[in-house]
């Protein structure tokens, strides 16, 4: 399983992108401040 760090200041984008990536089998860590 691949792990992805996702950074964006928009929580809606973080949620939708992380849900999509997790559905494809990725492990996702989200950060809203980078």
From TrEMBL:
Sections of the chain in a coiled coil: none
Family annotation (InterPro entries): CheY-like_superfamily, Sig_transdc_resp-reg_receiver
Example GO biological process: phosphorelay signal transduction system
Domain Response regulatory: 3-34
Transmembrane segments: none
PROSITE patterns per record: RESPONSE_REGULATORY
Name of the protein this chain belongs to: Response regulatory domain-containing protein
Taxonomy of the source species: unclassified sequences, metagenomes, ecological metagenomes
């Amino acid at each position: 399983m691949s792990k992805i760090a996702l950074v964006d200041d928009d929580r809606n984008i973080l949620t939708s992108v992380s849900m999509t990536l997790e559905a494809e089998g990725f492990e996702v860590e989200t950060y809203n401040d980078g």
